[in-house]
Amino acid sequence: MLVDRLAQCRAPFIVKNTASGILSHLNGAAEFANRVAQCPIRYVLSDELTRLCTALAYSKGSRTVACADLLHVPAETVWVEWCEAPWRAELERYGFDIDAADTARSGRRGAFIQSSTDGRRGVVRTFWSDKETAADVLASSMEAYFDFDTPAGEDPHPMDDEYRSTVCVTDGENGDLLRQCVRFRYERSWDAYYQQAPCSAASKQAITRHALSTIAADIPVLLAFLLLLGIRSGVSHRPQSFARLNRSRARAGKMALLDHVEVHSPILAPHRFIDDDGDKMGWRPRRLHHVRGHLVRRGNKIFWRIPHLRGSSLAGSIRSRTVTWTVNETTSSRRQVQHATH
């Protein structure tokens, strides 16, 4: 698992200025080794759940602001990781330009979330490794901070009260949670490093775009996962303990593997096609085409209109296209009380 490799990182990330010879220590994976080892909750997403969370995030953009009151991080520090291959495949399905070489060497991705005690504000840092360099863990130079209670028209407030230059990401749709509640910025040491870097404004802008690409696409997927965590029967939890294996590893002088919780996709009805010889609708059937999914909330129910095929009955028809999740009453009412006290 990526979290095990991250917990074993010890080498600091040092860069050298080739012109002056000055060395700079930048915040990287090694600074998070102890944090993930002491993290109370570590989630590992199944491939099916990774696909579902990516579809929820991108099938109609990141328009989950209507569900923002349901979002909260379950602990002050949380680790979430997933396999890159299904994540990339789903991103490509929804229009992202995915390089074939990147897909071929896909490894694992993860995010370390630090949040307030109520789980409504926090900061996210992302990490990854690929198959070619599985021993190396890379950390994003940027971090994302969020505030789910940000009023419309205002900027989110950073949990650490540090105001550095930020980047706002949006999918261009109204009700975009990324635009309203999330901002991206360089981590403190990286920000200082790039502030002093003697390069043009165009070069710095290109570097910022690249840095943003290492984290921005992860955040909507994490938000979708947090949403499912707060829904009754949203995900299936399977705790994994390595106590017995770790005793053997200790005798061999190896570091212990970290316990984690495997989370799986809720059991959804399969897309069943049935034969239908006659359309009987009185008009010419449309050509078979794919319809993107979308999320709708009505009270304490969330409806996920799953991606489906629509068109000629010669290809059959899908019996059910809607999945309904019910939000726990206690969760919903608690959010309402918190909003009232604010």
Task: Describe the fold and architecture.
Helices cover 29% and strands 25% of the residues. With 342 residues, it is of the alpha+beta class. It has two domains: 2-264, no CATH class; 273-341, no CATH class. Strands 3, 4, 5, 6, 7, 8, 9, 10 and 11 form a nine-stranded mixed β-sheet that branches. Helix 3 (47-58) runs parallel beside helix 4 (84-93) and helix 3 packs across helix 9 (218-229).
**Which word captures the global form?**
globular
Determine the structural class based on helices, strands and strand pairing: alpha+beta
Low-confidence stretches: 269-283, 330-342
Record field, number of beta strands: 18
Element-level helix/strand string: HEEHEHEHHEEEEHEHHHEHEEEEEEEEH
Largest sheet: 9 strands, mixed
Contiguous helical run count: 11
Measured as a percent range, the helix fraction is 25-40%
Give the terminus-to-terminus CA distance. Answer: 40 Å
Average pLDDT for all residues:
79
Report the portion of residues in β strands. Answer: 15-25%
Rounded to an integer, what's the Rg over CA atoms?
Answer: 22 Å
Give the count of structural domains. 2
Q: Outline of this structure?
A:
29% of the residues lie in helices and 25% in strands. By secondary structure, the protein is of the alpha+beta class.
SSE layout and pairings?
Blueprint: H1 2-7, E1 13-16, E2 23-26, H2 33-37, E3 41-45, H3 47-58, E4 77-83, H4 84-93, H5 100-104, E5 108-115, E6 121-129, E7 138-139, E8 142-147, H6 177-181, E9 182-186, H7 188-196, H8 201-213, H9 218-229, E10 236-240, H10 243-251, E11 260-264, E12 273-274, E13 289-291, E14 294-298, E15 301-305, E16 308-310, E17 317-318, E18 322-326, H11 329-341
Parallel strand pairs: 3-4, 3-11
Antiparallel strand pairs: 1-2, 4-5, 5-6, 6-7, 6-8, 8-9, 10-11, 12-17, 13-16, 14-15, 15-18
Helix pairs in contact: 3-4, 3-9
